[in-house]
Amino acid sequence: MLISIATAALPAVAEDGYDLWLRYKPVSAEWRREYRPLAQALLLPRAPSPTIRAAERELRRGLAGLLGAEPQQAGSVRRDGTLLLGTPASSPTIARLDLPLAQLRPGGYLIRSVVVDGHRATAIAANDDIGVLYGSYRFLRLLQTRQPIAQLDLASSPQIQLRLLNHWDNLDRTVERGYAGQSLWDWWRLPDFRDPRYTDYARANASIGINGTVLNNVNAKSDSLTPRYIAKAAALADVFRPYGIRVYLSARFNAPMEIGGLGTADPLDSDVRHWWRDKADEIYAAIPDFGGFLVKANSEGQPGPQDYGRSHADGANMLAAALEPHGGVVMWRAFVYAHDNPEDRAKQAYSEFKSLDGEFADNVVLQVKNGPIDFQPREPFHPLFGAMPHTPLMMEFQITKEYLGFATHLAYLGPLFEEVLDADTCRSASGRCDGSATVASVVDGSLHGYRTTGIAGVANIGTDRDWSGSIFNQANWYVFGRLAWDPRDSARAIAEDWLSMTFVPDGSFVGPAADMMMASREAVVDYMTPLGLAHLMGTGHHYGPAPWVDTLARPEWNPVYYHRADARGIGFDRTAEGSDAVAQYAPPIAAKFAGRSSVPEKYLLWFHHLPWNYPMSTGRDLWGELVYRYDRGADEVAAMRRQWSALHRYVDRERFAKTADFLAIQQREARWWRDACIAYFRSVSGRELPRGVRPPEHALAYYRAQKFPWAPGH
Ligand code: BDP
Q1: 247: which of 28, 162, 237, 347 fits an S-S bond (Cβ 3.0–4.6 Å)?
Q2: Choosing from 56, 58, 266, 402, which is the catalytic residue?
Q3: How far apart are CA 422 and CA 381, in angstroms?
Q4: pLDDT for 11
Q5: Which residues contact 370 (CB under 8 A, 6 or more apart)?
Q6: What pLDDT does residue 151 have?
Q7: Sign of the C-alpha dihedral, residues 7, 12, 18, 19?
């Protein structure tokens, strides 16, 4: 019954999504009666830092919105319902409580219902101010999701140290693979003009524990390292600092030549080493808590150490030496493949880096994409996870949906992230697949005892009012942050929190909407690349289906390279008879993936080339199953549309309509994907459509003729 009252308080006015999950709309009268007595006053440390001030502002704003009244400022605990903020060092009241704070990691917090001088109070305590800020957001989330707060005793610590967004933002404000408007960073008017939106960006990130941001594209320009641009980055760092967010930059490897006037960028050259050391000193003078560099080197045409016959370790260690005196890190990307390397593209990163294990300096972290190719709707986990015990590996996910329908398709990435993090690498000490060596345990450092741990998400954020190009894309930013905090958290539970905060905490809305979200990524897999297919997207922009493309200069630029369909069969043989990519996994996994009947069907064509009449577990043959999956994906989007229509009374008009319009686009495009792929694979296989299956709307030539020169993000 409490629940139905919440629905009655729906906002009458339209909303554009700007407030994200920090909307703080009024709770029902019933909840207000429960919450208000427990949140009446605020006792801050005597000398509040900017971070504590940020916590205070958020609590005031949140409680005013949720409960209709801001808490009073208190000098001591003189009444029931005081919120106590601080650390034992900053707050004598917190110190007196003698809370079990030793168990917390940096940034962790404890929220506990306590009695102080005979009055009921709630302590939001930590060992550091940023923990207090995180705890304040958590406290607000309890109210936003209508949890009881009278008997609180909860502790939480981030399981991963570096929880970063990677912005692929260019200095002209275009965003590589960005589908949400321009870059937030108004480089031209920085540092003088500090858009208030930067603060809202920091609030949103801090609310989910993100603690760093790489400001510029991995395909970097050296200009970012010039004094003028360092000053601009410093202005952003100043805005973000109270929220615990450090700034990082992508560094172009040949910057010493492009902006330093040197004749080489050889990492072993002493002038080059000096140049980087001076550059680091210069950056730290402007940004004392600068996080470090992200580097894409010798990949897709970027300069790198191999241009000088040096290894990736030589390159990374040279930059690491420059940052080391200041405590900075180098995040060296393992997304390395070369156009002139004939080896299976899925194998190249492992081949390149595995032998370098242990050769990197202490402040280098290798940043590895979740799968061995490139952010496809589904890939098996990257074989480097678990294979480099002596080199910290950090995860790179893509939040922006370059290969999953851009901003318009509703695809909740929680299940994708979760599937990767939960995957067992079988690199346990015993060599057994006992679930103790998951990708999450690699990334959080527990498996190999990494000294530095990290996770990065390629941001989906831009100047659109809704930040992420669609309302539901906000959930992908959100779930990334939550899983970065705790990679063992549940994608479903996070979706439910997000729905409650973003729309309304009503079970009859949240349940069906979460069902829709949870099924959405699998739908994309089905209508784009079922059964382990990959990279069938249009050339360059990656919009729409183009499985027929076979004319590009290098083999691995062509979709036909990935699916290998011909009259006899389809799929990429990565067993020992083929490229033997399976051998890069631990033996039990390699054996599983190599067996036609043991490989999970979702990875079937990733690892095997099979005849069209190959019998599937469903009783269909492979061709029939492929067609069935394409149909299932398109049907699922139709079901999502119906589901969303049925939820209209819970959602304000503007956000409802925008989502409904986008679902209509998605349905049309899912159909297009299905039709084009079926038409194409039918033409190669020469097979008839199974009985009862609807023929594609157009002939194959129609789909092949589609061109999208102005598709976004490219
Ligand atoms: C691919 C993108 C490309 C990026 C590259 C990378 O298509 O725009 O530059 O990854 O991660 O997914 O470096």
Answers
A1: 237
A2: 402
A3: 10
A4: 47
A5: 379, 381, 382, 395, 396, 397, 416, 417, 420
A6: 98
A7: negative
Counted residue by residue, the chain has a size of 714
Interior/surface letters 614-649, b for 16+ CB within 10 angstroms, e for the rest: bebeeebbbbbbbbbbbbebbbbbeebbeebeebee
| Residue 56 a catalytic site member | no
Active site residue 418: no
Structure confidence at residue 3 (pLDDT): 43
The rounded Å distance from CA 259 to ligand 1 centre is: 24
d(CA 383, CA 587): 12
User: Can you read off the two tokens belonging to residue 643?
Assistant: 């589901």
Residue 475: what pLDDT?
Answer: 99
Query: Which residue ranges form the domains of the chain, and what is each CATH number?
Result: 29-156 (3.30.379.10), 162-502 (3.20.20.80), 526-572+609-704 (3.90.1330.10)
How far is residue 187's CA from residue 167's CA, in Å, rounded to a whole number?
Answer: 14
* 709 Cβ contact list (under 8 Å, min separation 6): none
CA nearest neighbour of 485 among 231, 160, 17? 160
Q: Three-state DSSP class for 536?
A: coil
Distance 672 CA to ligand 1 centre (A): 25
| DSSP letter, residue 436 | S
Pairing mode of beta strands 72-74, 82-86: unpaired
188: tokens are 């031209």
> Model's pTM, two decimal places?
0.97
Q: Which residue owns the Cα nearest ligand 1 atom 9? A: 219
> What residue type is assigned to position 525 of the chain?
V
Question: What integer pLDDT is reported at residue 340 of this predicted model?
Answer: 82
Parts of the chain with a pLDDT under 70: 1-14
How far, in Å, is the centroid of ligand 1 from the Cα of 335? 9
Q: Dig out the tokens for 228 from the structure.
A: 């003028």
401 lines ligand 1 (CB under 6 A): no
pLDDT at 14: 61
Q: Is residue 176 within 6 Å of ligand 1 at its C-beta? A: yes
Predicted confidence at residue 339, as pLDDT, reads 77
Enumerate residues 6+ apart whose C-beta is below 8 A from 359: 311, 313, 317, 391
- Cβ(74) to ligand 1 under 6 A? no
DSSP string, 653-688: HHHHHHHHHHHHHHHHHHHHHHHHHHHHHHHHH-PP
Exposure of 593 by Cβ count < 10 A (0-12 exposed, 13-18 middle, 19+ buried)? buried
